[in-house]
Amino acid sequence: FPQASTMFAQCTRRCVSSVLLIALLSCILPHPAQASKSSEDIRCKCICPPYRNISGHIYNKNVSQKDCNCLHVVEPMPVPGNDVEAYCLLCECKYEERSTTTIKVIIIIYLSVVGALLLYMAFLVLVDPLIRKPDAYTQPLHNEEENEDARSLATAPTPSGARANTVLERVEGAQQRWKRQVQEQRKTVFDRHKMLS
């Protein structure tokens, strides 16, 4: 069993690392069809309020920072030529930049951590109970506790018609044992106190 668990763990690590590497490379390296889309990381956003009989509108366009103005972004121009300057003065244009590669890497790291935790949980639920052997030291202690419970239940009067060995009776037995232990400790403490004084 120990060899099987180590082999399973090694296989799991290899599979997870290879899947993560492939996913990371596929997200970082641009596909040929997406090579032209690198300009999506930058954009100019112009917010134009209502002007005369024209309603307000938001315009977005992928342009460089120097071209981030109303003349390059607002297309088609909703006003005639002589009103363009007045309309553009009302528009507020902002240059925005983001890194889709960084966003992809963060999402991959997050998903890989969640996946590793799920694999570990599956390992604990499925494989660990098969591998784990009962501890030689804790088993006798557990048996002693069960014997004490059985003795306390045998000495305690059981009501007629009730089933023996119920959870409530176990709790009451444990409570009685605890009370006896506290009384014995008090007795020994008071006896020692009298002897010292």
UniProtKB/TrEMBL annotation:
It is found in: Membrane. The keyword Signal applies. It holds the Pfam family Tmemb_9. Its main location: membrane. Residues 1-35 form the signal peptide. InterPro entries: TMEM9/TMEM9B. Keywords: Membrane, Signal, Transmembrane, Transmembrane helix. GO terms for cellular component: lysosomal membrane. It comes from the Eukaryota. The chain crosses the membrane at residues 105-127. Belongs to the TMEM9 family. This is TMEM9 protein. It comes from Chloroceryle aenea. The lineage of its organism: Eukaryota, Metazoa, Chordata, Craniata, Vertebrata.
